[in-house]
Design goal:
Blueprint (H helix, E strand, L loop, with lengths): L19 H6 L45 H7 L18 H9 L8 H5 L17 H13 L2 H5 L1 H35 L8 H10 L1 H34 L14 H26 L1 H31 L5 E5 L2 E2 L11 E4 L2 E4 L1 H6 L11 H5 L2 E5 L54 H8 L8 H4 L7 H30 L2 H4 L12 H5 L4 H33 L18 H17 L2 H29 L13 H18 L1 H21 L8 H16 L14 E5 L11 H10 L5 E8 L2 H21 L5 E7 L2 H11 L9 E5 L12 H14 L3 E6 L15 E6 L6 H9 L9 E8 L5 H14 L5 E6 L7 H19 L4 H23 L17 H12 L2 H11 L8 H21 L4 E5 L10 H11 L6 E5 L11
Parallel strand pairs: 6-7, 6-9, 7-8, 9-10, 11-12, 11-14, 12-13, 14-15
Antiparallel strand pairs: 1-2, 1-5, 3-4, 10-15
Subcellular location: Cell membrane
GO molecular function: potassium:chloride symporter activity
Keywords: Cell membrane, Chloride, Glycoprotein, Ion transport, Membrane, Phosphoprotein, Potassium, Potassium transport, Symport, Transmembrane, Transmembrane helix, Transport
């Protein structure tokens, strides 16, 4: 007989192990008929093997409630030899038979309230009872109870009276259609796999990702919290208006102050009720849960009483007189007899109504003009369903604030310029009414469709019950609302419908007067149902906040994930009560309702979006059991939600979207990274694939060119980055734009080094986060560094998103004897970038470069433009100055004039060129003349060649060393004879002049021409070895020395120097000399960026 497991999802560790809690949670329970005894341990490992779990492939597994590993399982795995071929994989991958066994016995623990009720202080595990709730009890009734609520009892008659039957029908139809489409989308998501308790937050976050999930989850939390405030306000309104008006603490001194006094009373009683409810929730949620059936019974009985009252009006309408003065409705609070005079015993005496409108009770008294010219009539407030009053109530009767509630078709004598003085017993409208405002007030009455999905952990078959129960509940409640609209319009007089607080009925609830057998059925029923709804909101909202906090996606909310020892969300309840108090301080039910409408509509909008995205992406995991969905329905539902948000209140909608947007960006910026396989990630992948296919064809236009950088990092022995400032420079250069690939090479084989590679990649990613470098990390394990760097240059990137620029640090230790090959790797990398037609940036003294937090208040960025190789030298300073570090630095451009150049014209041309490029910079032309090669140059060249020969000899055998020495001697002798026959020294820059003139040019030529040969002989007599030097190396060294001197004279104090990087020699035997030339060229400069362009133009003067 199979063993029953209680499987608890746990986070798998990277080493394949699991914590003690997970092992304890997987204790077998209820084992019957098995031969194994409890506590059987798995056999230890064979001798010679370490006593530890194999790490598998080293990758953390995805969380799954079905794939967990215990010692007992491993014992079963290794019992037979039939599967010996797979035994090395069995520590990380379970056998199919074991997996199917767990699937068959999987029990979805009921979460939330039930968990806390069953908690025991000793934390002993109980035997888990399989949930028994079906569709009717588990989904249908909770949805019915949540949907039917305070708006139905307190505001629906008023909405019908103001908007008319037709427009009210439209309002209800729109809102019910919105929730029906959302329910269809929700059913598809809820039946796509096992949905733990968590409702809409869980569904949205796992479908749309942590950013959307957190934003919409918090909006849903705020909506639920404000719903609690609305229910509490509804409870207090029923109590103070219809049950016990005398309980008001604050009394109004004048009629005008009654509304303000009512709001103050609502605040006082609402706060007290909130504290009481919060204490009930804090003490024990089980009491709220047990009372849920009572609250549900109140709702059902109240609705049945309404229908019974409607049926009764067909043959026996109730006698409910309403007093009218002209066509204006009068409030019945200050008089009993609806007449101006009372006749008794053949005498006529003024009534109490006369005294309200006149200055005395005498017939000759001065009365209100409208009262004097219009008659007092009495009509039936509820004439019955057969009276034909429906035709009068079909059309809307919107009014401004303070307007009279008037009956259509009743004769009235208008009075010019009447002052609406207080104290007269008229029924007045308390707020301005219009269509969109009524939509916002009504919409909360259709919310509550998530009640079934919130209880998914308690259902016998959630994937069947949630769609069926939710859709049936929406159909039922939609029928109730639509039929009530028609029946209210057909039974009740229009002036009574528009009388929000029943003032014409002596302060009685309008819908209660319609009910049978007694108005108190509705009053008491609505009181308890709204009270229960408030309690349930205060129970559900803290748990929703606790679920969001425990997900860890919003760091500052983590404190609300903690609670009492049994898991009760104490801190979350406190925050919920504080937010709820803000809604109570608003005090007006009509003002709070649109606020929570916004939050619920936004939540429903994203449920529809989640379903539409998953359907359109056709992800392999999207296989809902509920088949009656379509992306067009989800899209229609999403559009309807968005439209209703702006219909209700455009400014509330903008505020709600701003709140959600801020939370989204905060989670994106600071939140923990979660991978939930969400649809937005799939959408991003599809969009990325589409974009990559679009940019595949051909190189970008010059106007679109920007450095797409491959950053080559060096790692130390502990896989840490040697030069973090290289990433700082990357961030300053890129500012988050374009492509950045951070590459590194690990020496070895991948099978041996994959753990080190993961560690190195984590180190690089964390450093990228610290330096705010937005890009991708690509680490290569190669047999040697040289091949690894070549592989990166060739293969990094994808499709059209490939790098065009390589950024690397200068190998500072290239001269050290223990690092003889660093310069070879460097020079070969330079050759690789040239062959790949990629630009190369080499940062020398990279550890002196500024961090992202530093700011240069002043200084220069100097560009030494010796060779034009595409304009990258011009573009780099411009890009750097976009960043805060370099923003206040000036840009200076130096260019070198040869002997035959017109330096004045060069300067003008360069200024015009920069003007057309829209780059502001100072321009200077540096002129250089020919002169003899100095002794310093010869000495530097001699030291360089001696060192290079020594490096070669370290790698040669004895016979090879002798042959190499003979070759060097022959070559030096031949080169000496060639140099001796030369008539003049090679052209090298030395002197700096402002302008060239013809006379200066001739004088310099003659001055340098005469002592040519004798000068050489004098130098060689000083040190005969100089005559054996390779004259090509001498010339290169001469250029490096002289150019370095010129650069130092102008740019020694510059914050950054950008310099053309000369290419490596074509003859590979001179590579070590090339490094020496670059070292001499940049000697004495603090921060240098050597730039070698790709040859293609990267700047243009055209728009």
């Amino acid at each position: 007989m199979p063993t029953n497991f209680t499987v608890v999802p746990v986070e798998a560790r990277a080493d394949g192990g699991q914590d003690e809690a997970a092992e304890a949670a997987e204790a077998t329970e209820g084992t019957e008929g098995t031969e194994e005894t409890e506590g059987t341990e798995a056999p230890g490992p064979p001798e010679g093997e370490p006593d530890c779990q194999s790490p598998g492939d080293g990758n953390p597994r995805e969380n799954s409630p079905f794939i967990n590993h215990t010692e007992v399982e491993q014992e079963n795995f290794f019992e037979g030899k039939n599967m010996a071929l797979f035994e090395e994989e069995m520590d990380s991958n379970p056998m199919v038979s074991s997996l199917l066994n767990k699937l068959a016995n999987y029990t979805n623990l009921s979460q939330g309230v039930v968990e806390h009720e069953e908690h025991e202080e000793d934390s002993k595990r109980r035997e888990v009872k399989s949930p028994r709730m079906g569709t009717f009890i588990g989904v249908y009734l909770p949805c019915l109870q949540n949907i039917l609520g305070v708006i139905l009892f307190l505001r629906l008659t008023w909405i019908v009276g103001a908007a008319g039957v037709l427009e009210s029908f439209l309002i209800v139809s729109m809102c019910c259609t919105c929730t029906m489409l959302t329910a269809i989308s929700m059913s598809a998501i809820a039946t796509n796999g096992v949905v733990p308790a968590g409702g809409s937050y869980y569904m949205i976050s796992r479908s749309l990702g942590p950013e959307f999930g957190g934003a919409v989850g918090l909006c849903f939390y705020l909506g639920t919290t404000f719903a609690g405030a609305m229910y509490i306000l509804g409870t207090i309104e029923i109590f103070l208006t219809y049950i016990s008006p005398s309980a008001a603490i604050i009394q109004a001194e004048t009629a005008e102050g009654e509304a303000a006094a009512m709001l103050h009373n609502m605040r006082v009683y609402g706060t007290c009720t909130l504290v009481l409810m919060a204490m009930v929730v804090f003490v024990g949620v089980k009491y709220v849960n047990k009372l849920a059936l009572v609250f549900l019974a109140c709702v059902v009985l109240s609705i049945l009483a309404i229908y019974a009252g409607v049926v009764k009006t067909a043959f026996d309408p109730p006698d409910i007189p309403v007093c009218l003065l002209g066509n204006r409705t009068l409030s019945r609070r200050g008089f009993d007899v609806c007449a101006k005079f009372h006749t008794a015993n053949n005498s006529t005496t003024p009534t109490a109504l006369w005294g309200l409108f006149c200055n005395s009770s005498m017939p000759s008294a001065t009365c209100d003009e409208y009262f004097a010219q219009n008659n007092v009539t009495e009509i039936q407030g509820i004439p019955g369903v057969a009276s034909g009053v429906l035709l009068d109530n079909l059309w809307s009767a919107y009014a401004d604030k303070g307007a009279f509630v008037e009956r259509k078709g009743t004769p009235s004598v208008p009075v010019p310029e009447e002052s609406r003085a207080g104290g007269l017993p008229y029924v007045l409208t308390d707020i301005m009414t219009y269509f969109t405002m009524l939509v916002g007030i009504y919409f909360p009455s259709v919310t509550g469709i998530m009640a079934g999905s919130n209880r998914s952990g308690d259902l016998r078959d959630a994937q069947k019950s949630i769609p069926t129960g939710t859709i049936l509940a929406i159909v039922t409640t939609s029928f109730i609302y639509l039929s009530c609209i028609v029946l209210f319009g057909a039974c009740i007089e229009g002036v009574i419908l528009r009388d929000k607080f029943g003032e014409a009925l002596q302060g009685k609830l309008v819908i209660g007067m319609l009910a049978w057998p007694s108005p108190w059925v509705i009053v008491i029923g609505s009181f308890f149902s709204t009270c229960g709804a408030g309690l349930q909101s205060l129970t559900g909202a803290p748990r929703l906040l606790q679920a969001i906090a425990r997900d860890g996606i919003i760091p500052f909310l983590q404190v609300f994930g903690h609670g009492k020892a049994n898991g009760e969300p104490t801190w979350a309840l406190l925050l919920t009560a504080l937010i709820c108090e803000t809604g109570i301080l608003i005090a007006s039910l009509d003002s709070v309702a649109p606020i929570l409408s916004m939050f619920f509509l936004m939540c429903y909008m994203f449920v529809n979006l989640a379903c539409a995205v998953q359907t359109l992406l056709r992800t392999p995991n999207w296989r809902p059991r509920f088949r009656y969905y379509h992306w067009a329905l989800s899209f229609l539902g999403m559009s309807l939600c968005l439209a209703l948000m702006f219909v209700c209140s455009w400014y509330y909608a903008l505020v709600a979207m701003l709140i959600a947007g801020c939370i989204y960006k905060y989670i994106e910026y600071r939140g923990a990274e979660k991978e939930w396989g969400d649809g937005i990630r799939g959408l991003s992948l599809n969009a990325a694939r589409y974009a990559l296919l679009r940019v595949e064809h051909g190189p970008p236009h010059t106007k679109n060119w920007r450095p797409q950088v491959l950053v080559m990092l060096n790692l130390d022995e502990e896989q840490r980055v040697k030069h973090p400032r290289l990433l700082s420079l990357t961030t300053q250069l890129k500012a988050g734009k374009g492509l950045t690939i951070v590459g590194a090479v690990l020496e070895g084989t991948y099978l041996d080094k994959h753990v080190e590679a993961q560690r190195a990649e984590e180190n690089i990613r964390s450093l990228m986060g610290v330096e705010k470098t937005k890009g991708f990390c690509q680490l290569v394990v190669s047999s040697n560094l040289r091949d690894g760097m070549s592989h990166l240059i060739q293969s990094a990137g994808l499709g059209g998103m490939k790098h065009n620029t390589v950024l690397m640090a200068w190998p500072e230790s290239w001269k050290q004897e223990d690092n003889t090959f660093s310069w070879k790797n460097f020079v070969e990398t330079v050759r690789d970038t040239t062959a790949a037609q990629q630009a190369l940036l080499v940062a020398k003294n990279v550890d002196l470069f500024p961090q992202n937090q530093e700011r240069f208040g002043d200084g220069d960025i100097d560009v030494w433009w010796v060779v034009h190789d595409g304009g990258l030298l011009m573009l780099l300073p411009f890009l750097l100055r976009q960043h805060k570090v370099w923003r206040k630095c000036r840009m200076r451009i130096f260019t070198v004039a040869q002997v035959d150049d017109n330096s004045i014209q060069m300067k003008k041309d360069l200024q015009v060129f920069l003007y057309h490029l829209r780059i502001s910079a100072e321009v200077e032309v540096v002129e250089m003349v020919e002169n003899d090669i100095s002794a310093f140059t010869y000495e530097k060249t001699l030291m360089m060649e001696q060192r290079s020969q020594m490096l070669k000899q370290m790698q040669l055998s004895k016979t090879e060393r002798e042959r190499e020495a003979q070759l060097i001697h022959d070559r030096n002798t031949a080169s000496h004879s060639v140099v001796a026959t030369r008539t003049q020294a090679p052209s090298t820059p030395d002197k700096v002049q402002m302008t060239w003139t013809k006379e200066k040019l001739i004088a310099e030529k003659y001055k340098n021409k005469e002592p040519g040969v004798s000068g050489f002989k004098d130098l060689f007599s000083l040190k005969p070895e100089w005559g054996n030097l390779n004259q090509s190396n001498v010339r290169r060294m001469h250029t490096a020395v002289k150019l370095n001197g010129v650069v130092l004279s102008r740019s020694r104090g510059a914050q950054l120097v950008l310099l053309n990087m000369p290419g490596p020699p074509r003859n590979r035997q001179g590579d070590e000399n090339y490094m020496e030339f670059l070292e001499v060229l940049t000697e004495g400069l603090n921060r240098v960026l050597l730039v070698r362009g790709s040859g293609r133009e990267v700047v243009t003067i055209y728009s």
